[in-house]
Amino acid sequence: MKIIKTCLTAIISSVMIFSPMAYADKWSDQFPHIKATGDIPGECSYESMSKKNYKGKTLKINTHAVPVMGEPTALHAEQFAKLTGAKVDVTHTPAGDLYAKAMVPFQAGQAPYDIVFGFSNFINDWRRYLEPVPKKYVEMKQMQDVTPSHIGVASWDGVMYQFPVDGDRHYLKYRKDVIDNPEMQKKYKAETGKELRVPQTWKEYGEIAKFFNGWDWDGDGEPEYGSAEVMKKDDLMYAAFYSRSAAYSKNPKTPGGFFFDLKTMKPLINNPGFVEALTDWVEATKYVPPGGINFGLGDEIGSFGGGQTLFSFSWDDAFVAAMQPDSPINNKVGAAQLPGAMKVWNRQSNSWDEGFNQAPFFVWGWAVGVAKKSKEKEMAFDYLCFFANEANHQADIGIGRFGVNPFRNDDFKVDVWTQIGWDKDIAQSYVDTLAQMEESKNRVFPLRVPGTFEFNAALATAASKALAGQLSPQAALDEAAKQWEDILNRVGKDNVRKAYAVGVAMEDNKL
Amino acid sequence: MNFKHKYIFLFPGLFVLIGILIFPIIFTIRLSLSGWNSYTPEMNFIGITNYIRLFTDDPRFWESFFRLSFLSVTTVILQYIIGFALALIVWREIKFKRFFRVIFLIPMMTTPVIMTVIWRTFFHESLGPVNDLLGHIGIGPILWLSDPVIAKFTVIIVEVWQWTPFMFLLLLAGLLSLPKEPFLAAAIDGASTFRKFVYVTFPLMAPISIGAIIIRLIEASKIMDTVFVLTSGGPGTATETSSFYIYIKGLREFQMGYAATLSFTYLVIMIISLTIIAKVLTKLMIKE
Prior knowledge:
The structure holds two protein chains of two kinds. Chain A folds into two domains: 195 residues, D-Maltodextrin-Binding Protein, domain 2, CATH 3.40.190; 258 residues, Periplasmic binding protein-like II (D-Maltodextrin-Binding Protein, domain 2), CATH 3.40.190.10. In chain A, 47% of the residues lie in helices and 13% in strands. Chain A contains 22 helices and 15 strands. In chain A, β5 and β6 form a beta hairpin. In chain A, α12 packs across α13. Chain A is globular and about 70 Å long. The relative contact order of chain A is 0.15. About 2% of the residues of chain A have low confidence. Chain B is mostly helical. Chain B has a single domain, classed as MetI-like fold, CATH 1.10.3720. The radius of gyration of chain B is 24 Å and the shape is globular. Chain B starts with 10 loop residues before the first helix and ends with a helix. The chains are: A alpha+beta, B mainly alpha. At the A-B interface, α4, α20 and α21 of A face α11 of B.
């Protein structure tokens, strides 16, 4: 009897232990994209989706161009179609046109697309045309794992309008094989008298970048450079500028606004903190690769990922791309929080507060919503839920060109990254960096107010004039601040204040 | 006899004219008097507010307009000179004449956006082949796209490469249609090649030249794709042209009303300036 009991227990245990794997294999055979994990049970897993029947229905999606976000959209559309019988039409649109392509039909009361991809900072303009994410999806297990920051980014006043598919922040990427190299450390110390380490401040970043600029420090026969940054006007450069400005201007002692003073709605972007950041940035034009002043995001990813520069800072994509097996700098990179500053501007006392300050920037990222006028809302949300299910998400975040970045608590586990071939210490530095940013109480969130595009474009134009030497940093930011005042007058101060208050509450840790 | 029914036959053409020309212009004018943007998505009426803003508070538009004038005049002059020279070469009896005629036309037959992407790759300061080649002879790196002055000339190079064939084609057609008698008379008088060109070819080609220059000026003044792909108007605003600026205001920042104001103003300025240019060219090039 005891033997029978033991055998029975063993059989039951085996079934319980191995059944998920057998179950996983069934789907990963058909869909090699998830071969590393197989299907992972959940409300929107492959298994669950296979039980849906959308035969005869068509889902229309407008997404970004291939590969960033466009490739995973198309891939998951194909998988979704196979599983559910739906027809899925995917349209690819350049990043600069995503806003208008959705906005024109939105304003005309039409819904040519059921699902529209864009950036998370579109939320204020788009939310009136988007269907809030239904409760059943918000309460799903896979949604419970999304970090509070990214729930906040996808929501407006507590209502989720964007389905979380991506998590974005700016952080520092550096060549670990150089910074940790004892010979380089010795050389740097001998020539500068300073320690070579991961830069703690933007000034230190500049000093190290300048030292490693224009000579062949990796022995490949080509000169390398200090830093690759997004400096091209109208190509997201405003985000890079905010990243450089946060340490100088986001003072934890003066809550109530980073971009504007919430009380008066006076633009803050020409205060000495921002000017200091722009002055640093103008200096950075001396240690970027030739033509670096014209680098867009793709150039920055290619430059750092191709081993051309020592530093870079922007979205995760460059880091993940650099860590892919085919990268020339695979397992030679490290991640750290954005550098800080040894002083931060205090707008209340109108003076610098001395001391170290650091402020992570939760830059906007990819966002997606379902059109309010869509006739296929249920199918649309099912597709998005499937897109972001555990198995797809784990596979997607390991592919740099996909542009899908961590936004779930599970993503901050080292194992997730070592499984795809990352060295343990690199994976640790990566997840530590992301986790520290989540824990920070001095964060900056993107501007999400009516007229966001106008504000950011005015800032980018002014900053690019300073980078090109057309204006001094102070004059450039004064010009931007003047334009911000004009935009405020056009949009209405109260309209902007009302929207900006939501972001300020997040920054001031009140949401 | 009552011929009033003949007007019925005008209606199809009239409808097309209204649909594709009159209506868009009237709509643009109406739009320019509205504040339609991302946060006020309606055709409200705000009078001439947008026009006041343009004329009193938008130096960027005027800067982009003067930059455009420089770029379009320079590129068209260069295209005219090179196009005329190439047309004169293949106008003569030379070997492989047909082959050269086709070769000279190839740039115009390619897609501008694709070719600009290729040019951008060529001129990439750190990864492109142009600086690499120049580096072998000790020159550079030249900041083709990131120096405010050089970037303008890079745009000019690409535009001249792309559109000189068009000028070449028009001028070659003109040369082939010239009467032979004046050339025979000049030859009998013993005129040199240079004199034949100055006193016979060039004056005879003047009407065609004016037409070609005006057509190219109209096209060049709409320059958008080259700037968009090559420099995005940068560095700073160094290569930003009017059409690119209007695109940014309309489709990037979604200020539809203001973009319509810019478009309509730009249209009026272009009509006036091209009319003046045509008159001046006629006066300078066609002698009574």
